[in-house]
Write a structure and sequence with these properties.
7-stranded mixed beta sheet
C-alpha cells in the first residue's frame, strides 16, 4: 500500500479512536485535506483531493466532537474537491471564536484539519 495522505496541521482519527498526530498515512482511498486559511475570521476553503471514487462525509465539528455543519455527504469521483465554510452552523448561526475541526471520512479512514476562528 502506498503512502497517499499528506497531513499538514491535521490529525488522523481511526474510527473509534482518539485524535492523534501523524505525518503520513497509508490508505486505500488517497486524500489530501487542507483548510485554507486555517486561521480565519469567517470563511475557510476546505480542499480535498481523492485518488479513487469513494463514499465521503465532510463536516465541521467543535472540540466536543459535535457536528456543526455538514459540507458533503455522498459519492465523490477521483480528483480535487472544495467547500467553503462560512463560520456558521447548520441553522445559519455564527459560531463563536474558537478551535474547530474539519473532518473528512472515506472508506473507514478519517482525516481532520484544525481551524481557528477569530471573530
Amino acid at each position: 500500500m502506498k503512502a497517499c495522505m499528506t497531513v499538514t496541521e491535521m490529525a488522523l482519527r481511526p474510527e473509534g479512536g482518539g485524535i492523534q498526530s501523524a505525518s503520513r498515512m497509508d490508505a486505500p482511498s488517497c486524500a489530501d485535506l487542507r483548510a485554507v486559511p486555517s486561521l480565519t475570521g469567517g470563511h475557510t476553503e476546505l480542499r480535498l483531493s481523492v485518488l479513487k471514487a469513494s463514499e465521503l462525509h465532510v463536516g465541521v465539528y467543535d472540540r466536543a466532537g459535535r457536528e456543526l455543519a455538514r459540507m458533503h455527504q455522498g459519492e465523490v469521483a477521483p480528483g480535487f474537491h472544495s467547500w467553503t465554510w462560512d463560520g456558521r452552523d447548520a441553522e445559519g448561526r455564527e459560531v463563536p471564536s474558537g478551535v474547530y475541526f474539519c473532518r473528512a471520512t472515506a472508506d473507514g479512514t478519517t482525516a481532520a484539519a484544525r481551524l481557528v476562528l477569530i471573530r
